[in-house]
Amino acid sequence: MLDIKNGVSLLPYNTLKMNVKANEFVEISSVEDLRHLSSQKGFPERKKLILSAGSNVLFSGDFDGLIMHNEIFGISVVSEESDQVILKVNGGESWTDLVEYTIGQGWGGLENLTLIPGKVGAAPIQNIGAYGVEVKDLIVSVEAFDFTTGKQVVFSADQCQFGYRSSIFKTTAAGRYFITAVVFRLSKFPLLNLTYGPLKQAFEGKISVTIRDVSAEVARIRRSKLPDPDEIPNVGSFFKNPVVDASLADKIREGFPQVPVYPQVGGQLKLAAGWLIEQCGWKGYRIGEVGVHEKQALVLVNYGQATGAEILDLATKIQDSVFDRFGVILEPEVNIY
Ligand code: EPU
To answer: To the nearest 5 percent, what fractions of the chain are helix, strand and coil?
Structure first.
């Protein structure tokens, strides 16, 4: 039964801990719920938002529409062979619990994505990634409910049009689909990905490294740099790492030979937004209830009672100073409503 509630506080539903309300709020626990909801009169015109764990959203004020909270649970093995497992995971499952579960089973693939906050249904939307791995590398398909047709659809990984922190669900099809499940291919003989510098260093010269070892090291690195949202509210990286033309990167390199650059397919270069922000003097900065994390300048934090406006104000100041100093435009990674 659908139970649409009014005037619901979103405080427990966003990791930046914005104290705002939703006009309407409904928990979605099955595809059936989506069918019922979307067949209601006036549904297509309604302002609405699908919310998972709220770990990548900034509510700049009350949400004047309907929040659909993904509560579709369940994990099942679709097929198992001698070397791999195809696993279907419903969208409401916790990402960190999933990673822990697969490691416990000895199935490799997700270990570098340990401790990323959020739910499984949101993972493909921005193609979550960390420490050398992006979730697209493990995804076979994505199952979604199409609000336009009222039908379930299956997207192959190719059809998802994955890119750096991007997919069709964040671009051309934004808001059209509710991701109900994600199907992963995991390996029983995992090839470890130790391309991320600090991870490589940690295991240099070590033999018989396991997925559990990698997961534990990723957790250690994360905890050393990134604030736990339960202790200091945040949404992880607030901006994307900018991808710029070689000419601009070269210009920056002339003045700052130590700038971290990551070559991309096609000749462009990705810069480290955290480094750019730190160079502009923001790291550890605090004004009132908002600030820039002292160990990772890409993370904006709420020290308690920050409002969306205060966070946006700080974000704009950071963007302006990075542009003035380096000529680089920083785009938010967080979704702002
Ligand atoms: N750096 C600084 N100062 C800082 C932060 C970073 O100089 O304050 C430098 C680092 O020394 C390093 C480079 O910038 O040379 C990159 O830093 P780091 O490896 O910490 O990663 P990142 O590029 O800042 C990205 C992701 C993170 C992910 C890490 C690890 C984006 C927007 N962010 O951050 O993802 O955990 O790599 O793979 O791509 C997230 O998306 O929310 C997130 C936390």
So the answer is: 25, 30, 45
Residues 6+ apart with CB under 8 A from 296: 225, 226, 227, 274
Q: Is the dihedral of CA 139, 219, 318, 259 positive or negative?
A: negative
Is residue 333 among the annotated active site residues? yes
Which residue's alpha carbon is nearest to atom 13 within ligand 1?
Answer: 272
> For residue 16, is it within any domain?
yes
CA of residue 274 to ligand 1 center, whole Å: 6
pLDDT band of residue 310 (cuts 50, 70, 90) is very high
Is residue 176 among the annotated active site residues? Answer: no
pTM to 2 decimal places: 0.96
The two three-digit tokens of residue 279, written as one number:
């160079």
| Contact (Cβ atoms closer than 8 angstroms) between residue 133 and residue 112 | yes
Residue in this structure with the two tokens 């070689």, named with its chain if needed: 246
Do 138 and 44 lie in one domain? The reply is: no
- Same-domain pairing of 117 and 168: yes
Q: Return the residue whose CA atom lies nearest to atom 6 of ligand 1.
A: 274
Greatest alpha-carbon pair distance for the chain in Å reads 64
Please check the confidence at residue 1 and state whether its pLDDT lies above 90: no
Tokens of 57: 């959203």
Q: Using alpha carbons, select from 78, 93, 84 the residue that is nearest to residue 141.
A: 78
What does the block give as tokens for 245? Answer: 């033309």
| Parent domain of 171 | 75-187
Atom of ligand 1 nearest to the CA of 235: 42
> Is 165 known to be catalytic?
yes
CA of 48 to the centre of ligand 1 (A): 32
Select from 218, 298, 301 the residue to mutate for testing ligand 1; criterion: most ligand atoms less than 8 Å from CB.
298
Q: Based on the domain organization, do 157 and 242 belong to the same domain?
A: no
Q: How many CB atoms are located within 10 Å of the residue 105 CB? A: 13
Predicted local confidence at residue 184, as pLDDT: 98
120 φ/ψ angles, rounded to the nearest 5 degrees: -60, -40
Q: Is residue 208 part of a domain?
A: no
Measured in whole angstroms, the distance separating CA 183 from the mean position of its chain's CA atoms is 18
- Which secondary-structure segment (H or E) carries 33? helix 31-38
